[in-house]
Specification:
The protein is an alpha/beta fold and about 290 residues long. The protein contains 6 helices and 5 strands, in the order ααβαβαβαββα. The chain has a 5-stranded mixed beta sheet with strand order 3-2-1-4-5, sandwiched between helices.
Length: about 290
C-alpha cells in the first residue's frame, strides 16, 4: 500500500487537475452559448441561400451558359474541405469527423477517383499528413467568431480548383450541431450546384433581376462563402459543446477519484496508527515482563 505521504500528494495533484478542468468547462460553456446563438441566427439565411440557388440551377434557361457550374461532369478528382478543431480535449469531436472523412475518402478511391483535401484545423491536418498526405492547403487558428474575411481564401481555392478543372466535385465535411449532447459529422456537396427537385422548387411568383443566369453567376462565390462560414459556425458550436461535456465528465471523475483516494488515505492512516499502538502496547508488555 502507498504511504500516506504519496496518497496526499496524489490527492493534491487530482484537486489541481479538477480545478483546471472546471475552469475549462466554464470557459467552454461561455463560448458554446455564443457559438450556439451564432448558429441559430445564421442557419436560416444559409438554408434560404441554398434553396434560391438550387432553384435557379433547375431552370431550363440556365443550363447552357452556366454548364460548368450546375452540370455534373465525369469525376476524376474530388476536392474535400475538412473542418476540425485546432485543439483536443473535446471528447470524440475530432475523432468522429476524421473517421467520417476517412470513410468518405476510402469510398471515393474505391471508384478509382483521386482525392485532394483542404483542411481547416490542426487536428485534421496532422492526421492527413501522418496517414494520407493529400493536403492541398491548410488553414489554422480560426477565431471564435469567423467572418467572410476569414473564409475568403478558403472559398477562393475551392472555386478556382473547380472552375479550372483541377477537381470535378467539391465536398464539405464538418460536424453538424444539434444540441449540447448531440453533434454528428456531415458530408455535403458544394460544387457543382445540384438543381432542386421540381416538387421542392420555390414559389412561381419569384422574379429574378436581371436574369437567373446573372444571379447565379454573381452570387456563386457568396453562396459558397455562406455555406463554408455556416459549416465553421456549426463546427465551433459542436467543438465547444463537446469540450464542455468532456471537461464536466473529467471534473466529476476527478471528484470520484479524490473520494477514493481520501478513503484509501484514511485507511492507511488508521492502519499506521494501529501499528504504532500495537508497538507501544507490545513494548509496555515487554517492560512489565522484565520488571516482574
Amino acid at each position: 500500500m502507498p504511504s500516506t505521504r504519496e496518497i496526499r500528494s496524489r490527492i493534491k495533484s487530482v484537486k489541481n487537475i479538477a480545478q483546471v478542468t472546471k475552469a475549462m468547462e466554464a470557459v467552454s460553456a461561455a463560448k458554446m452559448r455564443k457559438a450556439q446563438q451564432q448558429v441559430t441566427m445564421t442557419r436560416p439565411y444559409a438554408k434560404q441561400a441554398r434553396e434560391v440557388l438550387t432553384y435557379i440551377a433547375r431552370l431550363s434557361s440556365t443550363e447552357h451558359e452556366l454548364n460548368p457550374l450546375i452540370q455534373p461532369r465525369p469525376v476524376k478528382r474530388v476536392g474535400i474541405l475538412l473542418v476540425t478543431g485546432d485543439r483536443g480535449l473535446a471528447g470524440g469531436f475530432n475523432a468522429n469527423v476524421i473517421r467520417k472523412a476517412a470513410t468518405f475518402i476510402r469510398d471515393v478511391r474505391k471508384q478509382g477517383v483521386e482525392v485532394t483535401v483542404v483542411t481547416v484545423g490542426r487536428k485534421g491536418r496532422d492526421w492527413l499528413l501522418r496517414y494520407d498526405p493529400v493536403v492541398r492547403a491548410e488553414f489554422t487558428g480560426m477565431p471564435d467568431n469567423p467572418t467572410t474575411y476569414n473564409v475568403g481564401p478558403i472559398v477562393r481555392i475551392l472555386i478556382d480548383d473547380f472552375l479550372s478543372g483541377y477537381v470535378d466535385e467539391v465536398h464539405l465535411i464538418y460536424t453538424n450541431f444539434f444540441n449540447t449532447i448531440r453533434q454528428e459529422p456531415h458530408v455535403e456537396q458544394l460544387l457543382p450546384i445540384r438543381p432542386a427537385e421540381a416538387a421542392s422548387g420555390m414559389a412561381s411568383e419569384y422574379i429574378f433581376e436581371p436574369s437567373p443566369e446573372a444571379v447565379l453567376s454573381r452570387v456563386l462565390y457568396g453562396f459558397t462563402e455562406v455555406q463554408v462560414l455556416q459549416a465553421l459556425y456549426e463546427s465551433l458550436a459542436s467543438e465547444y459543446s463537446a469540450r464542455m461535456v468532456a471537461m464536466r465528465n473529467a471534473t466529476d471523475a476527478a471528484g470520484e477519484l479524490i473520494d477514493d483516494l481520501t478513503l484509501t488515505y484514511n485507511k492507511a492512516r488508521q492502519s499506521g496508527i494501529t501499528g504504532e499502538l500495537m508497538d507501544i502496547v507490545g513494548g509496555a508488555a515487554a517492560l512489565e515482563g522484565k520488571s516482574a
